[in-house]
Amino acid sequence: NQSSLKDAYKNDFYIGTALDINQIEEKDAKTTQLIAKEFNAITAENIMKSMFVHPEKNKFDFETADKFIAFGKKHKMFIHGHTLIWHSQLPKWFSEIKDSAEMNAALENHITTIVKKYKGKVDSWDVVNEAVNDDGTLRKSVFFKALGEDFIAKSFQLAAATDPKVDLYYNDYSMENPTKRAGVIRMVKKIQEKGIKIDGIGMQSHWHLNSPTIEEIEESILEYAKLGVKIAITELDVSVLPSPYGMQGAEVSQRFANNEKMNPYPKSLPDSMQVKLAQRYADIFKLFLKHKDKISRVTFWGVNDTQSWLNDFPIKGRTDYPLLFDANLQSKKAYYNVIEAA
Ligand code: XIL
């Protein structure tokens, strides 16, 4: 009979949440209390991304990120930095660089300035985010186009040289897909073969009710662990909505034009679905516990359902119910199942 998520898993791994600006500013006491009670790790959902901290080539802006760090310190939490090098949410100046010397200089200035600023404050960093495609090849990002695959090892090297103590992670989604996994493992091995430090692999874990299967998740945990790195579950949520990825363009726009049609559960999640979600979370946490020696942290991508990014992704206007707390910050059945699994 445990009183919170972090207490229930205190001997196993950190239990984290992503926080966005409103939550950090502590605008609502109930939300702040809930965060402090349930979680002992935080990740910035957006505010440490390059478009926010490095908006112009010669201008850094750490005001909001500093508030995030202060929040974590105040509540004695493990602080995870997300993310140094990512092709998305990139400021215009960065996304337009084509020249390799210019990209090298930008990468160096970006990584060393940020890692130095938060040396001793941030406990781990996502150094590179989403560099591998689903087919296992490397994404042809602006970084790749300018520097080739070297940008990955170089990013880790810069981060390690700036703060030798902070844990350095590679983070990505669909990490359970065997083809993608093979690409990630190839990439990590190349970093290791160069003698460059990489401490961990982040499995984002934006999952669905039935996929990936527990067996697929387990296989990935075991395969990544063979690299001798820590594994973190970095952005966990379980969508209850059908994935729209298989739809054709016309169908997507048709549905986009009519929010109601896109959303099978407009008002609240039906009881039968609550039960399914809770069962899924129980299965997931039982697996995490089985491999607790390999898992450093499990972080949810948001605190409660209304605030989840999935309400706008991959199509805007859907209502999803992927987290453990509902719109009124009440614990869902899934919450109790996660506590009971411990
Ligand atoms: C998402 C945020 O949750 C949204 O608020 C934002 O609009 C887009 O980014 N992979 C990642 C995260 O690494 O940074 C993304 O976060 C979700 C997917």
From TrEMBL:
Matching entries from Pfam families are given as:
Glyco_hydro_10
Q: Has the keyword Signal been applied to this entry? A: yes
Q: Which SUPFAM superfamilies match?
A: (Trans)glycosidases
Which reaction(s) does the protein catalyse, per the Swiss-Prot or TrEMBL entry? Answer: Endohydrolysis of (1->4)-beta-D-xylosidic linkages in xylans
Q: Where is the GH10 domain?
A: 1-341
Give the residues annotated as active site. Answer: 235
What keywords were assigned to this record? Carbohydrate metabolism, Glycosidase, Hydrolase, Polysaccharide degradation, Signal, Xylan degradation
Q: Which PROSITE patterns match?
A: GH10_1, GH10_2, PROKAR_LIPOPROTEIN
What Enzyme Commission number(s) does the record list for this chain?
A: 3.2.1.8
Does the keyword section mention Metal-binding?
no
Under the heading InterPro entries, the entry gives:
GH, GH10, GH10_AS, GH10_dom
EC class, as a word, reads hydrolase
Q: Name one GO molecular function term.
A: endo-1,4-beta-xylanase activity
One Gene Ontology term of the biological-process aspect is: xylan catabolic process
PANTHER family in the record: ENDO-1,4-BETA-XYLANASE A, GLYCOSYL HYDROLASE
Q: Which family does it belong to?
A: Belongs to the glycosyl hydrolase 10 (cellulase F) family.
Full protein name: Beta-xylanase
Q: Which organism does this record belong to?
A: Flavobacterium glycines
